[in-house]
Amino acid sequence: MSLQGKTLFITGSSRGIGLAIARKAGSLGANVVVAAKSAVVNPKLPGTIYTAAAEVEAAGGKALAIQCDIRDEANVEAAMAQAMQSANFRQRLTSTGFVIPATGSKPYTAFVKAELDQWTRVIKAAGIKPE
């Protein structure tokens, strides 16, 4: 599967598996929206949306850092709107997408497209509530 020129909106991508997926996608030529809550350096938790975006670009991709709390529907809508305003991402980002980590040799699976109400149901079913 080629990710060249495709845009991924990856939540939780400031650290951990989300960052690993974002870096790999960048190395495969993807445009990556780095969406996470961490915009300010925390001495206890390394990584921010800005450091992650820099890593994606160092890997060869294009990155857009957007602060986003996926537990808040209005925040997700605002983040998507912000991504759509970027010239590099406007033509490619067509719907809410999220990446599901996979096991094996590929650190990503195909895009999963969902309407915002479907995503909200997933978040609520998981018992995740906005702060």
Describe the structure.
With 131 residues, the protein is of the alpha/beta class. It has one domain (7-125): NAD(P)-binding Rossmann-like Domain (Rossmann fold), CATH 3.40.50.720. Helix content is 37%, strand content 16%. The protein is built from 5 helices and 5 strands. The strands form 2 sheets. It has a 3-stranded parallel β-sheet with strand order 1-2-3, sandwiched between helices. Strands 4-5 form a two-stranded antiparallel ribbon. β1, α1 and β2 (31-36) form a beta-alpha-beta unit. α1 (16-27) packs parallel to α2 (49-58). It is globular and about 35 Å long.
Low-pLDDT regions: 93-113
Question: What is the CATH homology-level superfamily?
Answer: NAD(P)-binding Rossmann-like Domain
Shape: globular
CATH architecture: 3-Layer(aba) Sandwich
CATH topology: Rossmann fold
Quick overview:
The protein has 131 residues and is an alpha/beta fold. The chain is 37% helix and 16% strand.
Features:
globular, 5 helices, Rossmann fold, two-stranded antiparallel ribbon, three-stranded parallel sheet, alpha/beta, 131 residues
Describe the SSE topology:
Blueprint: E1 7-11, H1 16-27, E2 31-36, H2 49-58, E3 62-67, H3 73-85, H4 87-90, E4 97-98, E5 112-113, H5 116-125
Parallel strand pairs: 1-2, 2-3
Antiparallel strand pairs: 4-5
Helix pairs in contact: 1-2
